[in-house]
Specification:
The complex is a heterodimer of chains A (597) and B (53). By secondary structure, chain A is an alpha/beta fold. Chain A is built from 19 helices and ten strands. A two-stranded antiparallel sheet of chain B has the order 1-2. Classes of the chains: A alpha/beta (597), B alpha+beta (53).
Chain lengths: 597, 53
């Protein structure tokens, strides 16, 4: 976070966030305990209060990130005047069973964009293939030759395929460093769906040169090219809300920032010296290769004394996201396993305390739905544990003492929890309208409509996503390895039948849960409906949200005004798919430098 | 086709187009397993226990 990279500022932000979260959690705990004590304290009251404590802490922690993020604006660091680059950077594109034409169209677009800066000779592209399917690998080679020829990039673009894809993506990159790392000062690590403006890549190299202690510079990639309802809702949220949340998180991280695995530049020497990942003892999911290697690499760089920084003022950094709930859940299954595996690293020697906390935070993000699930189950079972009401608790006192009505405390608690859920997003809306940022989202009125619709949309999809997440956690805890599935990219429309195949267990769980609640605690049924109705309707929700979106709602700035490099990629891809040469003549791809906020 | 050393020292057949620069670097394995006696308390309260960082 360039605006607050000092460790002192980070310490203050952490203290504020932690204090507010603990305060909110303690308040919720006390309120619920008093509510439970109204009819006599029992063990279930304590259990439920404990679940409320944990859940509220987690919600408040997220809310404070947004509140912190609203207190500042993204600012670039102070840099010396730009006199060209003195470094050489490898742009690494790991691929794994991807469509080569689409992937290479992004590379060709980035190369063309770099040429516009006149500094393309400082950058080499290395396509690092871990593709397992021979037919796709053959296509990769054929299209690589064509791309090099059409881009005139002989000696600047390389392709290699590993037949032994040990260590997955981290191993793939490590293999590159072990063979060729010495030829480069920096490496820009991308995903196959990453796209970056040439001027942004140059700016990142410039910032790496300006700060010799900087080991890793992470950009904040914007989600682009979403077409489906689910994808566009996620894209809107990522464009509208995430920058504020990320800024708040960045304020707390200071110089111990994040690495999200792509769209980030590393100093080769720092990375090579600090980030050789060992295999963990034991077998997957907790042992073996480190799955979510990026968080660990950020922690290792910080352990070695390097700065890891998120510069959220950098524009021109893009990625694509899943188009439907099922693809989102598949990706999340991988991330879940990776984050839970980090429980092995909480006590790793020499890590900074914040790095340990980041691991803990990742674990909490996946197990937090279990707190709510535990609370629901405990609430359904609670009537069995409630002692009979004693109307004469005072010996020899002839008049009955009626339990006090503490229902208002439960209602107050519910209001507070909904406040923590919705208030940060509403404040982001207010800030966007006041600052003029909403103009990029189709104007203030449309941005407000989109935000409110997104709140409803996320409320409907959240129970389904939480069920997938809960299943993932249980699968990992039961020792099931999720493997390394290929990412689905492109059109992800799902029929009702396909959606049913993926969610029938959620429907069954919803029906059984509702029935059990009706039998054991009918008074709780109205509270449960917002959760179980989306669960029971999951196939329809999943299918409907996977369909192509045709509304102005969820308009994102890049839909109104695509980035120059996106236009370049569109033209190149269309030409290649139409059997023509890529339109790479200088007059056809004039690129304007992106604005750095 | 060229043959290169993989991470674990075994041969890893690699198909290459355009020769990647030959500039090897050693990437030492980092220690991540907790040392004996390391507890959550020590990990998260290093100043209080003089351990951890």
């Amino acid at each position: 976070m360039t605006a607050s990279s000092g460790t002192g500022g980070a310490g203050l932000s952490r203290t504020i966030a932690l204090s507010l979260s603990v305060l909110a959690a303690a308040g919720a705990f006390m309120l619920f305990l008093q509510f439970g004590m109204a009819d006599g304290l029992d063990s279930m009251d304590v259990v439920r209060s404990a679940f409320i404590l944990l859940s509220t802490f987690w919600l408040a922690w997220g809310a404070t990130q947004a509140l912190l993020g609203l207190t500042t604006r993204a600012r670039p660091p102070v840099l010396p005047p730009f006199n060209g680059l003195g470094s050489r950077t490898a742009i690494l594109v790991p691929v794994y069973n991807e469509d080569p034409v689409t992937t290479y169209s992004r590379i060709a677009a980035m190369d063309a964009s770099l040429k516009e800066t006149g500094l393309q000779d400082h950058f080499h592209f290395a396509i690092l293939s871990d593709t397992r399917k021979d037919d796709i690998a053959a296509e990769e080679r054929i299209w690589f030759e064509r791309m090099v020829q059409e881009c005139g990039a002989e000696g600047r673009m390389f392709y290699r395929r590993r037949t032994n894809n040990k260590g997955r993506k981290a191993g793939n990159i490590e293999d590159f460093f072990q063979r060729s790392g010495g030829a480069y000062d920096f490496a820009l690590i991308l995903d196959a769906d990453s796209l970056m403006e040439g001027s942004t890549i140059v700016e990142m190299a410039r910032r790496m040169e300006a700060e010799p202690r900087l080991g890793l510079l992470q950009s904040l990639p914007k989600v682009t090219r979403a077409r489906a309802r689910f994808g566009r809702a996620m894209q809107f949220s990522a464009s509208f809300h995430s920058p504020v949340f990320a800024r708040g998180l960045g304020m707390m991280q200071g110089e111990t920032g994040p690495f999200w695995g792509h769209n980030a530049m590393v100093r080769v020497r720092a990375f090579v010296e600090s980030c050789g990942l060992p295999e963990l003892s034991g077998s997957p999911p907790f042992g073996g290769h480190i799955m979510s290697h990026d968080y660990v690499e950020a922690a290792l760089l910080a352990r070695a004394g390097w700065i890891v920084r998120l510069d959220d003022d950098l524009e021109g950094s893009y990625e694509e996201g899943p188009e439907n709930i099922v693809d989102h859940a598949k990706r999340d299954r991988r991330w879940c396993q990776g984050n839970l595996q980090h429980s092995r690293l909480l006590t790793a020697p020499g890590l900074l305390m914040w790095s340990r906390f980041v691991f803990l935070q990742g674990i909490l993000s996946y197990i937090s739905p279990l707190f709510w699930l535990g609370f629901l189950i405990a609430s359904i079972l609670a009537p069995w544990f409630t002692p009979p009401v004693n109307y004469f608790p005072v010996p020899y006192w002839p008049f009955p003492v009626f339990p006090s009505n503490e229902a208002w405390k439960a209602i107050g608690l519910a209001v507070g929890i909904f406040g923590l859920l919705f208030l940060p997003k509403l404040l982001v809306v207010a800030d966007a309208v006041a600052s003029g940022r909403a103009r990029g989202f189709g104007g203030a009125a449309l941005a407000i409509q989109s935000s409110l619709t997104e709140l409803v949309f996320s409320s409907v999809t959240a129970p389904i996503l939480m069920m997938f997440q809960t299943r993932s956690v249980f699968q990992v805890l039961l020792g099931r390895d999720g493997g390394w599935p290929t990412n689905n990219r492109g059109d992800g429309t799902l029929s009702i039948g396909e959606a049913w195949g993926a969610t029938h267990w959620i429907v069954t769980t919803g029906v059984v849960g509702l029935g059990t609640c009706y039998l054991l605690a009918p008074g709780l049924v109205p509270w449960l409906l917002p959760i179980v109705i989306p669960m029971i309707l999951a196939p329809f929700v999943v299918s409907w949200t996977s369909k192509r979106s045709r509304t102005a709602l969820f308009t994102a700035p890049l839909e109104l005004s695509p980035a120059p490099v996106m236009n370049l990629q569109d033209r190149i891809l269309a030409a290649w798919q139409g059997g023509e040469a890529a339109p790479l003549a200088a007059s056809e791809h004039k690129v304007e430098a992106p604005a750095h906020a | 086709m060229t043959t290169a050393q993989s991470n674990d020292g075994s041969d890893n057949q690699q198909a290459e187009k355009g020769a990647l620069p030959d500039a090897p670097m050693a990437m030492p394995r980092q220690v991540l397993e907790a040392p004996r006696g390391m507890s959550m308390f020590r990990a998260f309260l290093p100043r209080a226990t003089r351990a951890g960082n």
